[in-house]
Amino acid sequence: MARTREGLPLPFQMGLPALDAFPRKLWSRLTARRARRRAPNDLACAEAAGYEPLQTAIAAHLVVARGIACAPEQILITTGFQGALGLITRALMQPGDRSWIEDPCYFRARGGLAAAGAALIPVPVDAQGIDVSAGIARAPAARFALVTPSHQSPLGMTLSLPRRLALLGWAREAKAWIIEDDYDSEYHYKGPPPALKSLDRDGRVLYVGTFSKVLFPALRLGYLVLPEGVLADFRRIVSRLHLTGASLDQAVTADFMTEGHFARHIRRMRNLYAARRGALAEALADRFGARFGIEMQAGGMRLIARLDAREDDRALTARALAHGLAPSPLSPCAIAQDCGQGLLLGFTNVAEEEATAMAERLSRALEGSQN
Description:
The chain is α/β, with parallel strands linked by helices. Helix content is 40%, strand content 15%. It has eleven helices and twelve strands. An eight-stranded mixed beta sheet has the order 1-8-7-6-5-2-3-4. Strand 2 (98-103), helix 4 and strand 3 form a beta-alpha-beta unit. Helix 1 (24-37) packs across helix 8 (247-258) and helix 9 crosses helix 11. The relative contact order is 0.17. The model has no long low-confidence stretch (mean pLDDT 92).
């Protein structure tokens, strides 16, 4: 993570919530209260599957917010997305197993599958999300598909209902597993679609959620919702490996949820992000004009500034970083299908009143780099 000398993240950095707007005092009070109440047995190892009250709180949240009806015991607490993905690959994947992956895609998802020995099958995405018919044509007997149906990473579209049903139908027939990364689902500005898991009637979807972007990344907490048919196998693995986060953090997160702070925080952040997104998009359009085509995604925590094909988004990113800014290039997200040139610009930590100045800073950083 790129940081300033003061330890702050650089402007436009992706994957970070609004650190200035997190209720730190409230979190500190909850943490102190929990620490005072800790009994001697609380200092032992945490439950391998996770803190039961947190599992219960997550189950209550999912049924309301994502349409997922599950029992608390179907939820395993993990160390973020990577922890959940690692657990899935340990439990279900054999080296050489073929796995569909969206093209373009999130580099950490791609790297996690590759590290587990999966044979990656890039499947193109279009305006409706992953092209299921293309995936079937390329690898009908694949064992896995890793998808971001609520908010495709990095392009931002939502997987359409016909594609969702087609994907579930393929998984049922192929006896394949769908890994649903419910990426940025909390921050749809016109209301989030139901989770793919909510439509799963055959127990083929492994649902991954994380608190990193909703609360703060240093928490390193995520969760995995499992079909009942594989729960025993996963529990055997976690009992040996103990992959959950710190027990105190889990307890504080459970309190934050059960006392209503979590739902209020999401509502507040959704409104804040909508305002910051709009302010930055307007400032970029004013400053760059036709050079940037600003894509306002239906949700998420970043904008895409589309570039002319003659420009090099990697070179522009390096130039921006040299000036203390941290956009990310779009083109490296592609595997086999060219997704074009663009800059991914995180807006969550750019205050409305700072948007014009940040657009000017970016313009100065990129000055002279246009072909």
